[in-house]
């Protein structure tokens, strides 16, 4: 086990290595390809991942410590994932705003914010790596669908992180995310989490995907193209529903 999922892991690592070099995706208005990629990721979460979480609810309810809180609310973890990444985004944005008002282009505590942001995404990547490993227990189709959605999602994340942290992300951040992704996948060889905990990890990641896509699409200054987002979501939704 693990020898099939290594290929998606390598593809995702490749995206972190070279995603920032896709210059044609940069600029304003926002690239239609980034919006399409975001739409695909969100469609996957709503039409494939969330139904899978619903099926795994029975496993979660077997956790005695979680029964009171999660017996009917596995999606609580999705909400937590969304809230965590929303909070991180607000910290980064508000810090940069305060520094800009003071006329400082490079805040002195930029490194602290950078490591908070990158550290959080490193955990996120590690969880995705672990899920990829676990996906081998299912069908090749499920592994492929998850991998495609995460690959496009990683492209969106890369551009968001580069916009926030510039050279720091290119020099350090992307390497940290690659190591975290591979480490999360590698942990699958030595640590086998109960199925209920895997479901909760997937729920957390699902909430994170939704937040991280929408935060890149919604700001007015991005001049995002809604039709491109809707097209990506619609096409991938049609694919998922046809399978």
Automatic annotation (TrEMBL):
Protein name: ZIP Zinc transporter
Coiled coil residues, start to end: none
Segments traversing the membrane: 6-24, 31-50, 70-92, 113-133, 139-160, 172-191, 197-214, 226-242
KW DNA repair (keyword) present: no
Keywords: Membrane, Transmembrane, Transmembrane helix
GO molecular function, one term: zinc ion transmembrane transporter activity
Domain of life: Bacteria
GO cellular component: membrane
